[in-house]
Write a structure and sequence with these properties.
The chain is built from three helices and twelve strands, in the order H-H-E-E-E-E-E-E-E-E-E-E-E-E-H. It has 335 residues and is an alpha+beta fold. The termini are far apart. This is Cell shape-determining protein MreC.
């Protein structure tokens, strides 16, 4: 029986080869480190490789940069849209506030004018708001937010800061109806403030005109003359401005003159009027006479055209100075 030889000894050729390869790599690495430290050629190689890779890196970063730009643009657009909406709303609010302030300023100026007219004439008046206006050519009316409960009575004179507006023709407990000067059924006895010539002013359905008829050619009436209430008939107190003569012309008969008057009161605007509680103690002061050059122009325009022998309106005589206005009284406007 042959003896047991035991396991065969493994071959060490592969291990030796691996060990030698490792030592060669380590030696090469040491050499490269030393050379790079002294000459820097490996750093230069890295820089060149980095230049070659840069385009690839740039292309690879495009999606990220595009996504960031789109996100930023979307956020900026949303912010600008929100700010634009906010500014637009703020502009609308500011315009509404400005319009309201302008309306309040206009109301303030109008009320100051009414109060100034009351103080200049030392008048006992009632301030009444206007509820409704009817300016139909055949019916000129105002409806006031004041009635018998506030002391309003039929026949009461109505004025504003400019002059006479009309008279109360109907009064209920809480409202009143005013007949305007321009109503076709209304007539006002007037006088020329410059010389006291008495006339009649008729309504004609127009809110910007009154009519004068049957003016004698010899009457001293001129364009620009101020007409005031004469007090005849005891319907309207004397001395309140009615209007200004705007035009004079011969009538169809050529024996008289007719004319147009621009009302002194603002009949087609305003939201408040004054009702006279009682007649003033003294007539209101009249306006100064018109300039001499306006009188000369008027006298030439009044003469009938084409009538060589027709009489003309004579020139105005001397005008007495207007009496000084009375001092304002302590009374307040009642609303």
């Amino acid at each position: 029986m042959p003896p047991y030889a035991g396991p065969s000894a493994p071959s060490r050729t592969g291990e030796v080869a691996d060990t030698l390869r490792l030592l060669a790599y380590l030696g090469l690495a040491i050499v490269l480190i030393v050379l790079d430290h002294r000459g820097g050629w490996l750093r230069q190689a890295r820089e060149q490789a980095s230049l070659l890779v840069q385009p690839i890196r740039t292309v690879a970063g495009w999606p990220s940069r595009m996504a960031g730009a789109l996100y930023e643009d979307a956020g900026t657009l949303a912010q600008l849209t929100s700010e634009n909406d906010r500014l637009r709303n703020q502009l609308l609010v500011n315009n509404a506030r400005l319009a309201r302030l302008q309306a309040v300023a206009a109301d303030n100026a109008r009320l100051r004018g009414l109060l100034g007219g009351k103080q200049r004439g030392n008048l006992d008046v009632l301030l009444a708001p206007i509820l409704d206006v009817d300016l139909d050519p055949t019916r000129q009316r105002l409806v006031l937010d004041a009635g018998r409960g506030d002391g309003v009575r039929v026949g009461q004179s109505v004025i504003d800061a400019g002059g006479l507006v009309g008279q109360v023709i109907e009064a209920s407990p809480i409202q009143a109806t005013v007949l305007l000067l321009t109503d076709p059924s209304h007539v006002v006895p007037v006088a020329v403030a410059r010389n006291g010539v008495r006339l009649m002013a008729y309504g004609n359905g127009r809110s910007d005109r009154l009519s004068l008829t049957n003016i004698p050619l010899s009457s001293d009436v001129k364009v620009g003359d101020l007409l005031v209430t004469s007090g005849l008939g005891s319907r309207f107190p004397a001395g309140f401005p009615v209007g200004t003569v705007a035009e004079l012309r011969p009538d169809d008969s050529r024996a008289f003159l007719s004319g147009d008057v621009t009302p002194a009161a603002q009949l087609d605007r305003g939201r408040d009027v004054l009702l006279l509680r009682s007649a003033p103690a003294t007539p209101l002061p009249s306006a100064p006479p018109p300039p001499a050059e306006a009188d000369a122009t008027t006298s030439g325009a009044v003469a009938p055209a084409g009538e060589g022998d027709a009489p003309s309106v004579p020139e105005a005589g001397p005008v007495s100075p207007a009496s000084p206005p009375p001092q304002p009284g302590p009374a307040e406007v009642t609303r």
